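Hey Z.,

So I finally got round to the NAP thing we talked about over coffee. Here's the setup:
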Amino acid sequence: MVVIKALDFTVKIDELQKHQLVAKTYSDEISSNQVLLKVDKFSFTSNNITYGIVGERMSYWKFFPTQSGYGIIPAWGFASVIISNHPDVKVGQRFYGYYPMSTHLLVTIDHVSSKGFVDKTEHRQGLPPIYNFYTNTEHDPNFTPETENLISIFRPLFITSFLIDDHLAAQDFYQATQLIVTSASSKTAQAVACLLAHRKKEDGLRFNLLGLTSNKNVAFVKQLGWYDQTMSYDEISHLNASEKSIVVDFTGNYQTQFQLQTLLNGNLVYNCLVGLVDWQNLTGENPLPQKGKLFFAPTYAEKRQKEWGAAKFHQNTGMAWQQFIDAIQPIISIEEHSGTEGLEQLYLDTLNGKIDPRHGNIVRLNKRGD
Ligand SMILES: NC(=O)c1ccc[n+]([C@@H]2O[C@H](COP(=O)([O-])OP(=O)(O)OC[C@H]3O[C@@H](n4cnc5c(N)ncnc54)[C@H](OP(=O)(O)O)[C@@H]3O)[C@@H](O)[C@H]2O)c1
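And the result:
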């Protein structure tokens, strides 16, 4: 029997600053239809931190259960099959999907096709299907080895951005003449801004696309070139409150929400709540004037897939993806973080908002050659 040493990076559920490495082992004697994957790399952004913040409420801890009181944050990346006990999945095949922050993942294969497979492990059932599908890189029309880091970072975020743009257009932008994006420097906001700027040009639309960001990121957001106007959070009181406005909120910051709601008042026609990057400042003294509407990408994705059919959905997102990836490639520099020390530092820096938005962060927990 061959013994394979593995590691999980676990975090304390009620105190995310605390983390713990857990060593475990797998053997090559796995059950029928099981496959052991070795995780090559995964991306890490604030989106992963948000999985931890809402882990209990939105079941993110259920994907990769670990010791009591701790959780494993899911991350998007690539892994290779090292042991297979399924006739249609071969050692060496590579799959893109939802992995634990770990060196390995054991899956139980279902619905295998040339496109990929579904993990039917018991504890993952009942969770949104989009997270349980693993894409075979050999048959992924949008996969290239040159862009795999960008795929790892942006693909899950881009789908959300695509759906936000699609939803706003379907609603005729709620007749708004101003669209305000908070945490405008975040990766998901970058893709939203790129798509909206493109749509504006293509369809001759006239709304003002305003990016709100922190002082330190103003120059970067301006440089993106997709926002018509960029402001720091300190300047919110100067925005034009007489325009009918949409807010697409990635920050979750209570103060920013409070100021925008108070200032725009009846002119806030749609308050789209997408993210919680500023997780340490989500609440304040008084209740917010309005609740806003939560935007959960998997729900919108399922709706659109039903309406368009899977083929059209993939065709539409694929075309938009290609345009975005060409635009973002020269802007983002990839930073690789290897081993447990690399991951620990990146985890804490991301948790504490110390990440430069110019960087796209990739983790290799299995050092090359391991
Ligand atoms: N609802 C959904 O279905 C869905 C889907 C995808 C993503 N999201 C959410 O969208 C958000 C953005 O994710 P992302 O991965 O694109 O983020 P990201 O690229 O890692 O965002 C980085 C930016 O967020 C702000 N920020 C990060 N950490 C912060 C902190 N601790 N305190 C204050 N500001 C902080 C800063 O922007 P500024 O300086 O510009 O504020 C920073 O440049 C996440 O909350 C994610 O979960 C939601």
